[in-house]
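call fold(seq) -> tokens
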Amino acid sequence: MNTTAADNTSPRRVLGALALELAPGSAAARDAAAQAEAGALAALVAADLAAFAPDAAGLDCTLVAAHFDPVELLRPGWPLHQELWQLAAKAPRAPGGGARILAFGSHEGRLPGALSPAPEYSGGPLRLLPFVLDGDAAVVARVSARCEADLMEEGMAGAGTALAMQDAFGLQVEHARYLTVHDLCALTAMQYEHAGLAPLWPLLETALLSPRREAWLDEAPEPLLHYAGDGQVRMALLPPAAWHSRYAPGDACDDDASRARLERRYSHFEARQRQLASLLRAHGLAVEFIHCQGDDARAELAAPPAP
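ret:
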């Protein structure tokens, strides 16, 4: 897979992250490092990447000295990486200068642009420092191929890098390794499978890696979802009778016990809808609830919005 381009065609940039797996029960004291520390952290990351893929030394390495939850990186269009690249593009380049190491840290408690971690996603066991490698297209292609093939398996951060991250953010690092955004997708897919969220991943993966394509979640007993290739997910809202017809057509509803059982299942279904909607929004996708009668809910979801 090519992870380096938002449209998944050619590797224009290498998009990745330094993944910090925190020691069990620990948390970070700070979510960002000051600008004075950021340059040293970026230099360590650039050295690690050049040791893994020597051609990377010929590319600009841009890092934000702040750590994020995976959902903040895994969003259509890779907005954190895009913001990082755009800020780097505005930085002056010395005449005749070679590859640059650029770092963005906090100044007076604030990070530039849209690079601030969201407080509602803090506290997770895996924290990510996004980076971008950019430069000559042929060099990017070679580094991208090397990273996609082996970075997840071989890209352990140096001991000095891990210790510097511990000091900068006040955290305890269990493991520190480098990932491409596609590596992060694969890791997240496994985590979601273990959390009982595997049915949602193909739709979410489409939105991330092929955002112009459409995808469905149409797998009972899951809610019915449609991603139309426009950054928005439409979710079918079914009244109890329509839900019964679609999801439990063979179940009787002729006494108090059976009605109570179906009501509990319907309540669980509604809770699942809220859970999936919350997760999709965390990944930067808009969610629109569509009231459907249930006779052909899939056709109702696929229909264009009324003018």
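The first strand starts at residue 14 and ends at 22.
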